[in-house]
Amino acid sequence: MDKPSTLQRLRNRYRLVVMNDDTYEEVATLRLTSLTVYIMLCTTFVVLVGFTVALIVFTPLKYYIPGYGSRTDQKKFMSLKIRADSIEADLNDNQAYIESIRIALSDGKMPTLKDTVILELPDPERLED
After folding, report:
1. Non-local CB neighbours of 102 within 8 Å, separated by 6+ positions
2. What span, in angstroms and rounded, lies between the C-alpha atoms of 123 and 84?
3. At 94, which helix (H) or strand (E)?
4. Largest CB tally within 10 Å, which of 26, 69, 71, 97?
């Protein structure tokens, strides 16, 4: 016996009956296939996603999203960033100036760090052997 193909299985018809539990009267009857249920669910999903995106994009709700701000806020942040970069450059220049003055006041010699590594020298008596 041949197995039905996927498309044939999707086209099998089913009946959905909604009944009144007390009187057993049929309230609604729907004839459905798996394919129509799949199409309806996909369409509902796409419509809900589209509605949600439209709601966020075209209303002030977008300002509650982290990282999203108004144009004026973005311009203020950019000017603050430029200002902070220039202050940092000035600080580096001042530190270099102070370092050069410190070197000049210490007779032009660069301060040297002392080597604190302990050297293990071989015993001279053993080298003669």
Report:
1. none
2. 59
3. helix 71-105
4. 69
Helix (H, G, I), strand (E, B) or coil at 43: helix
* Lookup: tokens for 25: 């009267």
Say how far apart CA 33 and CA 31 lie, in whole Å.
7
Q: Where are the domains of the chain?
A: 1-65, 69-108
C-alpha distances (whole Å) from 99 to each of 23, 86, 102, 126 are 96, 20, 5, 48
Tell me the torsion sign for CA atoms 52, 58, 64, 70: positive
Structure token pair of residue 60: 């002030």
Q: Which of 5, 8, 12, 58 is nearest to 32 (CA)?
A: 12
Averaged confidence pLDDT in the chain: 86
Q: Select from 94, 111, 93 the least CA-distant residue to 103.
A: 111
Residue 69's CB is within 10 A of a number of other CB atoms, namely: 14
